[in-house]
Amino acid sequence: MALINRISRLFQADFHAVLDQIEEPEQLLKQAIRDMEDDLAETEQRIKLCVHDQDALTVRRNELESAIDEIESQLDLCFDSDKDELARGLIKKKLEAERLQKRLKAKFAANEKYLAEQQTVLDDNRATVEGLRQKAELFAQRTPAHGDGSSEFDDIAWMARELQVGDDEVEIAFLREKNRRASS
Question: Tell me: the pLDDT tens digits for 133-161?
């Protein structure tokens, strides 16, 4: 069973390596940037709508406060004139206005929280897009001009050049080891 798992992993690794060669990383990176920019635009639109809602809620809340103040002055007049029936109707309106005011305050607080969350998301996404843009610029600089698919900055090629040991390096290391052992 272990042998089958190992063979399966090797096949999967080879398959992924082939896919990595087929995919064009630069194009994938550009597409990721476009997708993130679309997400940014959508988030900015949601923020604008939420700000507009907040403004409308503020206007409505101010109107209700004015209406409640007006009802208060009308109630004073009703009580001064002993118009209890009229006062009951105004009290009903006042209670309805206060209830609506409470709902508007709750909606305003919920919108404020949502707006803060969306602003955080927007800031994070902007930072991510900026990072992707910088990577794309670096990648564009690393792309070879001759277009043979290999880059002098290619990680595997770089590692292979670094790991190659010349005959003269082997000879010098051999002499050092021989001298070290002879002196011990």
Answer: 887 787 777 755 444 554 444 555 554 55
* Rounded CA separation 101/64 (Å): 7
Tokens matching residue 83: 């118009």
| Strands (DSSP E) found in the chain | none
Report how far residue 37's alpha carbon sits from residue 77's, in angstroms, rounded to the nearest whole number.
60
* CA 97 to mean position of chain CA atoms: 40
Q: What integer pLDDT is reported at residue 19 of this predicted model?
A: 64
Q: Which amino acid, residue 48? A: K
Cα–Cα distance, 73 to 94 (Å, whole number): 11
Q: Indicate the DSSP class of residue 164.
A: -
Give tens-digit pLDDT for 13-41. 776 776 666 667 777 778 888 888 898 99
Angle at 98 between CA 64 and CA 60, to 5 degrees: 25
Residues 113, 125: contact at Cβ < 8 Å? Answer: no
CB-CB neighbours of 118 under 10 Å: 17
Burial of residue 7 (CB within 10 Å: 0-12, 13-18, 19+) is: exposed
The pTM score is 0.57
